[in-house]
């Protein structure tokens, strides 16, 4: 058994564990709905509070060390501990270790960094998404994103392992460069942050809808687990933070790519299809950052831009890599 | 996040605004929409138009339009990136092509409409940034604003009370503020004291680098655009095919194609010379079971270069490692085989002898196509279209293919045409294309005569006794195989662009500015001390300008640090209460105006509560 087949095995193991984590997280959301409906929701006061982001019951776990009014309310009730979410995170961590092992084994098998074709890009990109998700959870409790993130990773990694797998082949000459190490890695890192921002923006939209319904005193206010999540403004703030970090990495990716293109192709910019899409994504996120600072665009409208931005990232990775003609013919697929 | 709320909560005098970053009026932090409708008259309308152009909304919308406008260029082939693709598209869609071409969809990034979008965007940027620079320059020189009267109205507000150990509570209060002033200065705040009859206070502000960074970022983008625009006029790019053993001289005449900027004069090229001594390439071993079989790599064009006034020296042009010479960069773009072909007439005199570059039709197998034109020396002009197979293998149909890209079993097949090459009237013709319209095909195809098939060293007779063709073997006499039997050629690109460095510098500045603008917190802090019932009441408050997730933690840290310093100073002592931070109602204020931090309902929406570590 060679390193590459060992890598394949660990990757599939990781996918299976991730799928388990996904299920645990999904059960967690179900559990949250329960908690949210068990909590006393009648009084306007509670509604107000949770509107402002200190969710009933959720706040002690969502907002650690929150010194605000909401957490007082939460500590007087028994704070639910979201066991399923913890199981989900434990499984995600375990899956990550297998994933990392698969990545390293592929690197050993190839004798180079394992990110030089689509199969490997997907492997590395999803690894970083999980890494960033787990790391961020050390600071903020964002386990409510687990279903979303793990679902995304299972689909992307599973899809890549089935659809994009290619044998290890030597690097083509243009890829023999330190910039392969830097440019692709930073791009994947930026993608990971954009993915988190994207997930937060989706929840932000859901939460904003729910808040509007609560204010309108509507009967039905949508999925109940939202009641245990931070308010839309806080979700927006977090999404913005991750998007800005991603944006800085992306800016660097753009520049590093131009430097590399100047060495490999004889010009630093030529509107090659992949360059074009990297540029489009950059401009979209610049638009998102502006929108957050523009009256009338903050809130749900800017969230849509974050979603469009990440859709463009995925489009760039899949459709552009596979079907658009250009100099970046590194999918490894024929 | 809740700046707008803080804004209203913080009572502001006009001069307070002078240190606030200036924002377009529709910025969330801005002064609000201009309700004033344009006065009739040209000036009024112009001013209104300018304000629209330099608004956040316009910048945002232009950014989004720019993103959308860039898309078609990735769908349709572009002349600048893929001219052959455009030709192909035209052939495939002859009806649609003229329509799309008139919309400049094959030159998107040079098109009038694309240019209009980014020029408007940058005009907006200039209009937006200039007043902000002026304003920021002033802010950098002005003092932190006066302490608001009601600090407790701010979101991030803390209070504590300390007993006085000495006899003079006012002196103790003043000392506490003096200590806070030192503390804030050590935290790199700009500080200013505002004392009055009611108490002492220090006002502090930091994070001017945030706005500086933002301005650097936007200006750097402008710098990139200008560098690219101006740089293009001084740049040139040329292509040239060089066969092993031949020499290339950097003069306009010696290029097969050349693009040059407006300000590149005819004599701008430094006349250096480069001889291609050899071309190296390695191929992965033949193994049909492996994806890597036959993959080529490690290309290296080994040259002898001599710049004017310099010793000739050996150098290599390698992918990713262009060769720098006389301010130019030389790139290796492609490579191929250049079979050496000799044509003799019926008498045996040489009428053609050259190594002819063949274009690879398939990079994996290096099956290549080339054209030989013999205009003189034979009864009729002669043209030959040839296929070259480095490792020839016969298909079941009898046609040939190449099984491997290296020279294992090289074979050259030639279809011979006689007649008029169409080159005498001066029409430029590609050397890679034969126009057969006024020629008769003599071998291959439907002629019924077999194409000429030659291995290196072999000679074949031309039809009709016109003469002979030889495929010369270039390998040394001692060679045992065909590996060196055919010369290789490289296609080089020579590029000169003095603006590259500038683009890089501005791009670097943009990143630097971006990091500052996004991560330096801009905030104000106030510490106020007053004497209440013989004790010192301390108030702390912070206000963020822009996104500042760590403000609350910063106020907490300030309070804790200050308490430690006061303890060390000894002029006051902490009240031995379990919760010293719970504020007492402020005398003279109604309870509504002074909510205690406990039931402060306004602690909303900020994610600074998440900003703990
Ligand atoms: C080439 C087009 C532009 C790009 C790519 C761009 C990009 C950005 C980015 C990435 C930021 C966030 C970083 C920071 O806060 O400094 C930003 C902020 C900002 N930009 Fe631009 N910008 C462009 C044009 C403009 C224009 C035309 C205006 C004026 C209308 C403008 C006004 C601002 C302002 C006021 C901010 C600060 C927003 C805040 O308070 O958070 N920008 N821009």
Automatic annotation (TrEMBL), chain A:
InterPro entries: Cyt_c_assembly, Cyt_c_biogenesis_CcsA, Cyt_c_biogenesis_CcsA/CcmC. It is found in: Membrane. Signal peptide: none annotated. Pfam families: Cytochrom_C_asm (PF01578). Keywords: Cytochrome c-type biogenesis, Membrane, Transmembrane, Transmembrane helix. The keyword Chloroplast does not apply. The keyword Membrane applies. It is a multi-pass membrane protein. The chain crosses the membrane at residues 6-27, 83-101, 121-140, 147-166, 178-203, 238-261, 276-291, 303-324. Residues 115-328 form the Cytochrome c assembly protein domain. NCBIfam families: cytochr_II_ccsB (TIGR03144). This is C-type cytochrome biogenesis protein CcsB. The lineage of its organism: Bacteria, Bacillati, Actinomycetota, Actinomycetes, Micrococcales.
Automatic annotation (TrEMBL), chain B:
Residues 573-587 have a biased composition (Low complexity). The keyword Protein biosynthesis does not apply. Pfam families: ResB. It is a multi-pass membrane protein. Residues 56-554 form the ResB-like domain. Residues 1-34, 569-613 are annotated as: Disordered. Residues 10-29, 603-613 have a biased composition (Basic and acidic residues). The keyword Transmembrane applies. Keywords: Cytochrome c-type biogenesis, Membrane, Transmembrane, Transmembrane helix. It is found in: Membrane. It comes from the Bacteria. The chain crosses the membrane at residues 59-76, 110-131, 215-236, 502-520. This is Cytochrome c biogenesis protein ResB. It comes from Microbacterium capsulatum.
